[in-house]
Design goal:
Elements lengths: L2 H31 L6 H4 L10 H45 L11 H22 L6 H18 L14 H35 L7 H4 L3 H35 L7 H23 L4 H24 L12 H8 L10
Helix pairs in contact: 1-3, 1-5, 3-4, 4-5, 4-6, 6-8, 6-10, 8-9, 9-10
């Protein structure tokens, strides 16, 4: 296949993945809406209540059984569609890399970074779904990925172009893979922190026993799961930011640290998450304070991921999105002020 054909395949795969993600989101919404009127006690197949007429009890049990069966069916359908969308998403990434000449990793600009990041969000969710019992997060994760993909296609899309010389390095692959995995995991942890705050507020207001939030785990479990995700992502981020990043910078620019805005914000993100883990381990921070600190880390993470590329004109990392003239300026050494004196 030609490079143009691979690029066309990638674009078609992105569109197809978006459609399948949308169908998966609908399936998950139907899954949860089937249980919206049933109390959690009935959802757990507990008795309807003592003292009710036998006919009412039987009818209520039949209704709850039907709702549970319908919910389980659409839950399985949603999971199948999410797995299919993730596979198509991978095809889009593969096609994007094969469309370049020479063949390269698909991390040359913000469109490709976001395409990769959303893929890893879905992949990590599917991997952790059973182990951490995150099935209830499916509509939120799929909805977030779908929204980011729409933003990526509408506002960030760029044609395939060759990488600058500094990006042709095996350290780029190691650095970006670890950074994207950490970013995706931190994002899932941030979503859990948001849900913790919402769930805690609902309970503080004496929230009901029906609806989606009623089936979200207790705040203590949300807090603990968010902590586990952050504890996994932090060493991966450390490896990306403090080890492979400086090695790649030295190989590309002969310096381990350049005070580049993206490097500085990556380190700020590292400090925030280090403070989060340290506060939990030593000061016993849990609950609301830990959630706020985790969300601060998420904000710095995504500002570093996207904001620097739009607001910084001095970052050496911005060549991934800059036009050729800017790339040439970024790669050229500054003029010597003493020349001609």
């Amino acid at each position: 296949m030609s490079n143009a054909a691979w690029e066309s395949l990638s674009n078609q795969a992105v569109a197809a993945a978006g459609v399948v993600y949308f169908l998966a989101l609908l399936a998950h919404l139907v899954e949860w809406s089937a249980l919206r009127r049933l109390p959690v006690a009935q959802d757990a197949k507990q008795p309807v209540g003592a003292g009710a007429p036998a006919e009412s009890v039987v009818a209520a049990e039949d209704e709850s059984a039907s709702a549970r069966d319908r919910s389980a069916m659409f839950g399985r359908l949603g999971l199948l569609l999410t797995v299919l969308a993730c596979a198509i998403h991978f095809v889009a990434l593969l096609g994007r890399g094969l469309a370049a000449d020479p063949i390269r990793v698909p991390w040359g600009n913000m469109y490709e970074f976001t395409l990769s990041g959303t893929f890893f969000v879905t992949l990590i969710f599917l991997v952790a779904r059973q182990r951490l019992r995150l099935a209830w997060m499916a509509p939120i994760v799929v909805g977030t990925v779908l929204t980011l993909l729409m933003i990526d296609v509408i506002w960030l899309h760029e044609e395939v172009a060759p990488l600058t010389e500094a990006l042709y390095s095996p350290w780029l692959v190691i650095h970006v893979v670890s950074a994207v995995i950490a970013t995706a995991t931190f994002t899932l942890g941030g979503l859990l922190s948001v849900l913790y705050l919402v769930k805690e507020r609902q309970l503080g207001r004496g929230g009901g026993t029906t609806g989606y939030l009623a089936r979200v785990p207790a705040p203590a479990l949300l807090d603990r799961t968010a902590y586990r995700l952050h504890a996994f992502a932090f060493p991966v981020w450390t490896f990306a930011v403090l080890i492979t990043g400086p090695i790649w910078a030295h190989e590309a620019w002969s310096r381990y640290w350049n005070w580049d805005p993206k490097e500085v914000w990556a380190f700020i993100t590292w400090v925030v998450y280090a403070a989060y883990l340290h506060a939990r381990a030593t000061a016993g921070w849990k609950g609301r304070n830990a959630a706020y600190l985790a969300l601060l880390g998420t904000a710095t993470l995504w500002f570093n991921f996207i904001g620097i590329n739009f607001f910084s004109t001095s970052s050496q990392h911005s060549y991934a999105d800059a036009p050729p003239a800017v790339v040439q300026v970024l790669e050229s050494p500054p003029p010597d002020p003493l020349v001609g004196v």
